[in-house]
TrEMBL record:
This is MALT1 protein. GO terms for molecular function: cysteine-type endopeptidase activity. SUPFAM superfamilies: Caspase-like (SSF52129), Immunoglobulin (SSF48726). It comes from Struthidea cinerea. SMART domains: IG (SM00409), IGc2 (SM00408). One of its GO terms (biological process) is proteolysis. It comes from the Eukaryota. Keywords: Disulfide bond, Immunoglobulin domain. Coiled coil: none annotated.
Length: 247
């Protein structure tokens, strides 16, 4: 066509009530006209009166936006669809009054305990103008395929255990979420033993308990010591001769 968009609008992630502008710029052989549209869920509609290059917005709810540009020769092009993500609940004091659009974490991931083979989901969120991009890490190592707000592993393995955190970044800088521990293990007797590897070998009335406490990618844990102590008392009550070992 005879119209070329020279500046696309960009997605943003902002708190409710925040005021900003979406921008669209284009060039053509004749004078150009602009018309903005928005989409909420499946409803796409023209925005009355939104016929300028800049669209002022007061953030109320998450929506998609696009701009149609046409000339006097009936040529028309649409800009990219962009997302205006609106956070209804923001921690007190965020963003700062002089916020310039740098990433601000509004949702940190939480510690997870998952049985082997089950799915793992970690989630975070950040505000930013433009909207931040995301990168997840495990034990300080970049996870190439995990570049969304939600980290998703369909079938977990023990090797997926570790400490996870995410970096949110845009053109103004970067911000990191809190680091959280993810425990992948097996469930038994209604109690989860993620890093408390526990073995009971019974021959007659002899029981061997082994509690592992030290791991290459995880800080020392107290659970193995407690588990071995509790099960030792239980097995001795049942008449077993108990041998307990740690690490």
């Amino acid at each position: 066509t005879a119209i070329a968009i020279t500046e696309q609008p960009v997605s943003v992630s902002v708190p409710v009530g925040y005021s900003f502008m979406l921008r669209c710029r284009a060039q053509g052989c004749t004078s150009l006209q602009y018309q903005w549209f928005c989409q909420y869920q499946s409803d796409c509609r023209l925005i009355p009166g939104a016929t300028n290059q800049d669209l002022p917005i007061i953030a109320e709810q998450t929506q998609l936006y696009t701009c149609r540009v046409n000339d006097l020769r009936r040529n028309a092009v649409f800009s990219d669809w962009v997302k205006v993500e609106v956070h209804q609940c923001v921690a007190r004091g965020l963003p700062p009054r002089l916020w310039r659009g740098e990433p601000v974490i509004v949702l940190n991931p939480s510690e997870q305990r998952v049985e082997v083979g089950q799915p793992l989901q970690l989630q975070c969120a950040a505000m930013g103008v433009p909207a931040p991009s995301y990168q997840w890490y495990r034990n300080g190592n970049l996870l190439e395929q995990q570049k969304r707000k939600k980290l998703w592993i369909t079938h977990t393995k023990v090797s997926d255990s570790g400490t996870y955190l995410c970096c949110a970044s845009n053109s103004h800088g970067e911000h990191w979420t809190n680091a959280v521990d993810v425990h992948i293990g097996t469930c038994g007797s209604g109690k989860f033993f993620a890093f408390s590897l526990l073995f009971v070998l019974a021959t007659g009335k002899i029981a061997l308990l082994v509690g592992n406490n030290r791991y290459q990618h995880h800080p020392n844990l107290m659970a193995p010591v407690r588990d071995v102590f509790e099960l030792s008392r239980l097995l001795e009550h049942l008449g077993f001769q108990v041998v307990s070992l740690l690490d």
